[in-house]
Each structure stands twice: as structure tokens, then as C-alpha cells.
Write a structure and sequence with these properties.
Layout lengths: L14 H13 L1 E3 H16 L10 H15 L4 E7 L7 E7 L4 H5 L5 H17 L10 E2 H6 L5 H6 L21 H13 L3 E3 L4 E4 L1 H15 L25 E3 L8 E3 H10 L18 E2 L2 H4 L2 H11 L3 H8 L1 H21 L1
Antiparallel strand pairs: 1-3, 2-3, 4-6, 5-6, 7-8, 7-9
Helix pairs in contact: 1-2, 12-13
Length: 343
């Protein structure tokens, strides 16, 4: 009888390393302060003496992470890190499935209707509300609810039970979710660390989701045949080369240069303070945004917020009209293109 295969373990792998992996898997993500507490608790238990979390250095934490990576790699898992775009660039480590797409992973814990909704939500974030004119990559609650059921256009594309490539599709049988089910699912995705909800009420992908979905997002929404000069839906910071869903953009509409807010100061220092786009040499104004600020920084939004504070229903409507704002910006872009063609 053949012996059962067991994955190889790194040299020196012990119960402390095993406990670290188990705790990391349960949490999904770790910051360094969280890692200090976790490693201190593990060492306190294994060494039978109290270990102060503040005594856990970056090198000690990195050693646990490195050993964990080596141990889980044969099982198609990995540990990767990224900086949080919103919280002062705090580094976050995520325990991820390295070889399956998000739909496959979520299919084990979500119903087919929920998985289909999540796909529609991704399309809203990185397709519909991510245009050359307005790179929002976030949705408000109203738009999230509107996606509760497949669009008529999508249903007609899958009327024969096949997708655009002729493969069997679940869209034909997707009856969608009730609004209460959408709100419950969104709340769950926030609690699990897949989505973040801002104070302004916009949902966007969390650092954990961006780390785990990096390859899938690029493969799904970017054109691999496009040139380096072409606009793409998934964009990267000019300094750190990580995905930008919240940051700044060049004021030249067709320019592809983006910067995280957390990378801006360091980037301009490398250029000796010269604030010109490195690609098109346009002056960098610092007030053209990627993320929800592409909406919330607009005067119409600010007026709407004031109206809402004063009990004005029209103000509330303006605030929530994400779809209208993106469509209006696209109309401006189309008019500009027509003017250029005529000239």
C-alpha cells in the first residue's frame, strides 16, 4: 500500500510555526502590530513564559512569515503583502489561494446566485464605473442594489445557456438576489475583509481582495495585446507598481500615470520636487483623483451633501447618482472626441 503524500516542511519547522499558519489562515490578513501580538502569544504558550508583543521585531515576524510561505507553497497557497492605500500605507500581509480565481474560491461558501452577484459587482467596479474620464472603482449602495439581478442585455446574451465563448453559463438560470440579500451579502463581504465601506458610503475592494485578486483582475479587465501607452482598466502606481484604486491621476485624460497618495511625497522627492508628469510632462495638479474622490470631490456632489444636511431631497438624489455622474463625464469625452475628429 502506497504511503500518503505529505507536503515537505521547511527546516526547523515546529509547533510554533504550525500554530502561526493556523491562526493566519483563520484571520486572512495580518498587520505587523497584529503579527507581534500573535507571535508573542504563540511563543508564550510554547516557551511557557510571557513574551511581550513589543519584543517581537520585524525580523522575527518576517521569519515566521517566510517559514509559513515555504510550508504552504506546495499546497498552492501563498502569503503576500501590500500597503493599504487609505490608512497611511500600513503594510498588510494576506494568506491567499495562489492558483484559483475568486469565483472558484467563493463557490465553496456562497450560493450560485451570490457568486453571480459578486461577478456583476466586479464588473461595476472595474468596467462600468471605471472610464477614461472617471476612474471611480467604487459603488454606492444604490448602484450595488441595482445590480441585484442580471441586466436584460446580459440575460439575452445567455438565452441559450451559453456565454460569449460558447461555454455553458449559469447566467441563464440566475434569478438574482433580493435587496435584503444584497445588503446582507455586502455586510458579510465587508466583515470578512473582501470589501471596504467608506464614510461616504462607497464600497471598494479591500487590500486583502486586491492582493488575492491581482492576477485575476489584470487577466479579466486588461487587454494583454495593448501597448504600454494605452489606457487600461487596472492601473499601477508609478512608484510602488501596485494596483491603484485610490489615489491621483495625471490631468491629461489619455495619460496613464497614476500615484497612490501614500507614494506621492516619496515619488516627487526622487524627482527633486519637479511636479510634472513623467510621461506627458503636464503639470501635476494633485486634484485629479482615482477612486471615490473622482465623485466626492465634484462640486455637484458637495452641493448635494449640503442639500442633504439641510433636509433637501434633491441634494440626496444628486449624491447617490453615481451612474449619472459617470455617464455625464463620458458624454463630455465623446463630444471632445467628435470635435477632434471634425478638426
Amino acid at each position: 500500500m502506497e504511503e500518503e503524500w505529505e507536503p515537505p516542511v521547511p527546516a526547523g519547522y515546529n509547533d510554533a510555526n504550525r500554530a502561526f499558519i493556523q491562526a493566519f489562515m483563520a484571520r486572512g490578513t495580518l498587520t505587523f502590530p497584529e503579527g507581534q501580538k500573535l507571535v508573542a502569544a504563540i511563543l508564550s504558550a510554547t516557551e511557557d513564559e510571557t513574551v511581550d508583543p513589543q519584543s517581537i521585531t520585524q525580523d522575527t515576524f518576517a521569519s515566521f512569515v517566510r517559514t509559513a510561505r515555504e510550508a504552504v507553497e506546495p499546497l498552492d497557497y501563498d502569503i503576500r503583502s501590500s500597503r493599504d492605500q487609505l490608512r497611511n500605507g500600513e503594510r498588510i500581509w494576506a494568506f491567499i489561494n495562489a492558483h484559483s480565481d475568486p469565483a472558484t474560491q467563493m463557490a465553496t461558501t456562497r450560493s450560485p446566485e451570490e457568486v453571480a452577484y459578486i461577478k456583476r459587482l466586479m464588473d461595476l467596479l472595474f468596467d462600468e464605473f471605471n472610464t477614461v474620464r472617471m476612474e471611480v472603482m467604487a459603488v454606492d449602495e444604490g448602484q450595488a442594489l441595482k445590480a441585484s439581478r442580471p441586466s436584460k442585455r446580459r440575460e439575452s446574451q445567455h438565452v441559450n445557456g451559453e456565454d460569449e465563448e460558447g461555454q455553458p453559463s449559469t447566467a441563464a438560470s440566475d434569478r438574482g438576489l433580493k435587496h435584503s440579500e444584497v445588503l446582507s451579502l455586502l455586510s458579510s463581504l465587508v466583515a470578512e475583509g473582501w470589501l471596504e465601506k467608506s464614510r461616504a458610503g462607497f464600497y471598494s475592494l479591500s487590500p486583502r481582495a486586491l492582493i488575492e485578486m491581482w492576477s485575476w483582475l489584470v487577466a479579466t479587465y486588461n487587454d494583454d495585446s495593448a501597448s504600454a501607452r494605452d489606457w487600461q482598466r487596472i492601473k499601477f502606481c508609478e512608484l510602488c507598481k501596485e494596483i491603484v484604486t485610490y489615489g491621483q491621476r495625471c490631468s491629461e485624460r489619455d495619460c496613464t500615470i497614476r500615484l497612490h497618495d501614500i507614494c506621492e511625497d516619496r515619488y516627487w522627492r526622487t524627482r527633486r520636487g519637479e511636479k510634472k508628469c513623467p510621461k506627458c510632462e503636464t503639470e501635476w495638479a494633485g486634484n485629479h483623483f482615482v477612486g471615490e474622490r473622482a465623485i466626492t470631490s465634484r462640486q455637484a456632489y458637495q452641493r448635494g451633501r449640503g442639500g442633504r444636511a439641510n433636509g433637501n431631497g434633491n441634494g440626496s438624489a444628486r449624491r447617490s447618482d453615481l451612474e449619472g455622474a459617470v455617464a455625464a463625464q463620458q458624454e463630455v469625452a465623446d463630444d471632445d472626441d467628435e470635435d477632434m475628429a471634425e478638426a
